[in-house]
Amino acid sequence: MSPRAELPPRPGRILISEEELRARVSALGEAIARDYEKLNPILVGVLQGAFLFMADLVRAIPINLTTDFIGLSSYAAGTTSSGVVRLVSDLSLPIDGRDVLIVEDIVDTGHTLEYLKRNLEARRPRSLRVCVLLDKIERRESEIDVDYIGFTIPNVYVVGYGFDYGGLYRNLRHVAALETS
Ligand code: PRP
Hints:
Blueprint: E1 10-16, H1 18-36, E2 42-47, H2 51-59, E3 66-75, E4 81-89, E5 99-107, H3 111-121, E6 127-135, E7 148-152, E8 158-159, E9 175-179
Parallel strand pairs: 2-3, 2-5, 5-6, 6-7
Antiparallel strand pairs: 1-9, 3-4, 8-9
Helix pairs in contact: 1-2
């Protein structure tokens, strides 16, 4: 066996550079600002993965807005979705009558967003939309309407800019493909 085969999974080729992320997040912010001007929307970041995207996105939206977070988990330690979504921590604010924008890092099978949209709709927001950084469309199992999309990506496991493998690599400034061999 060659020594390479023993390397652990790690960040590989860059899929989306820091500059590409900055430009796209800025454009998303401008579009959201136009659509939500004077509405004081609540942006709901989905933990943990969306924390970096959320932080950059809100700074690209030059209107009054409110932030909150919800913690969900569907992946265990590995690289495939369990399909079972768990609410790990709830919102701190009521959202009834408010314009709510979910800020999510990735839509893959769609199970997480399907669960979250159903959960938040039950709280009677005035409107509920979704902004995702990455859309892995070929993996979709649930029909989900996504209103703002950063990038559509192929079916590769990604790390960096909030995306982890076993808790690692969220702090990279770019999005990379996980290298496993
Ligand atoms: C990831 C990601 C999305 C979800 C998308 O979360 O952040 O929330 O999976 O997958 P789906 O469309 O197949 O449901 P994960 O459970 O890895 O938690 P994390 O955000 O804390 O990394």
